Amino acid sequence: MSRRLIILFSFAAFLVCPFARAGRIVLTGHDDDFHQSAAASAAMTAFLKYVRATAPNPTLPVLSFDHGSELQTFLTSLGVTFTNIDPDVGVPAASNFDVTKFSAMVVASDATCVGCDNDSTSSANLQAAAAPIASFFDAGGGIIGLAAANNVNYYAFLPASASVPGTVSCSSCFMQTPAGAAKLLPAVNGDFPHNFFPFPGTGGVAAAYQVFETYTGPSSSGTLTNQPFGLFFDGKIVNLTGATKVPMLGVPGMILLFLLLAGVSTLTLHKAP
Questions:
Q1: Are 26 and 232 in contact (CB under 8 A)?
Q2: What pLDDT is stored for residue 242 in this prediction?
């Protein structure tokens, strides 16, 4: 093989390997699994569609982490096939986080929302499984985290995903952002949430996160203005850690890769005997 062919193959491999797959995350301050209202159902349906889209097989079941039954009842009502693991039993085995078995994982809301299922033991065990969760995500698996409420370590199974406990007094003051509209991630009006998020890039939330739902109005933390109550992310875990960003291979990259491979084929065909 000529030096030119080796260079082209190496460059093509460089383009493809880092970008082969990446997952999607949705975090919300709403305890949709508790309310199970029409708005909550519409939101969960949209969340699942969004995060499962990057999985190798989006039709595979969902892996749920529910210490009680609310999330399981909710998923059943939505017609979603799932396997549940009680996160209080122990640290989930790494073998559970397998994109050949599951398209996404969903974590039930924390009990401090008053009436929800998971607790501090749940979050501690999931945090201890952060490494296999990251591998699952980077392989294309989706992640949905429901309300953290007063548990500030609730999303600690993900890097740079802090939350702020807080309640609001207006249940109809939530707005879908343009970014949320572009991804079909709705705001939930009519149900009171239990936590919000710092603005991306501040307060322990990675700058790579985007906001799909905001709130403007009175709250237990004073008046909030365009405060994030829903975050989403599309990429690789490294993008949340503050390390060098790994860009996604978009349409221009795909075109370039196609041209490179076409060039390799042409060189191969015209190579002198």
A1: yes
A2: 58
